[in-house]
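[agent] plan:
  1. take the single chain provided in the ticket
  2. run structure prediction with default settings
  3. attach structure tokens to the ticket
  4. add a short note for the reviewer (M.T.)
[agent] executing step 1
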Amino acid sequence: MDPQDAIDLGREALLTALLVSSPVLLAGMVVGLLIGLLQALTQIQEQTVAFVPKIVAMVVALSLALPWLIVRMIEYSTDLITRIPTRF
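[agent] step 2 finished; step 3 output follows
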């Protein structure tokens, strides 16, 4: 295995991790921004108010995106496993 193969494997792993984590992270970010805006408008500065809606939104996003996430992970794993004989 040469250094370029290792760089390619690392890049693909990071890209897959970014794609797999993005729906949950985006849901948490959007809900957190909306709750923060609501807290600023109503002047309620309690830290625990944003926790429950963010968790609920992240669980909903995960449950909706789970089939797509599983397909992405299976594609990455099969691609990685099928390329093992050609790399060594």
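[agent] step 4 note for reviewer: The chain has a mean pLDDT of 90.
[agent] ticket updated
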